[in-house]
Design a protein that fits this description.
The protein has a two-stranded antiparallel sheet with strand order 1-2. The chain is built from four helices and two strands. The chain is mainly alpha-helical. The chain has one domain. It is globular, with a radius of gyration of 14 Å. Keywords: ATP-binding, Nucleotide-binding, Transport.
Length: about 70
């Protein structure tokens, strides 16, 4: 979480998870996809949307936002 130390980031994540557990909808804008994937029920990325699994497996999203592994 930008501008926060690890303790503040953990506290914020705990609050967001509590909100999620209470079925409270919130908008979470984050570039760290690992964090997004760990908390989101649904993700919208410009012209794509779906569950974290659908987003992670969408080839257009991978190419544009997540990057591709290169064979060595």
């Amino acid at each position: 979480m930008a501008g926060r130390n690890p303790q503040e980031s953990k506290k914020l994540m705990d609050v967001l998870l509590e909100m999620q557990n209470n079925s409270i909808t919130f908008l979470f804008v984050k570039h760290d996809m690992e964090t997004v994937m760990s908390i989101a029920d649904k993700i919208v990325i410009k012209n794509a949307e779906g569950s974290p699994k659908e987003i992670a497996n969408n080839l257009d999203v991978i190419k544009a936002y997540l990057g591709e592994e290169e064979a060595v």
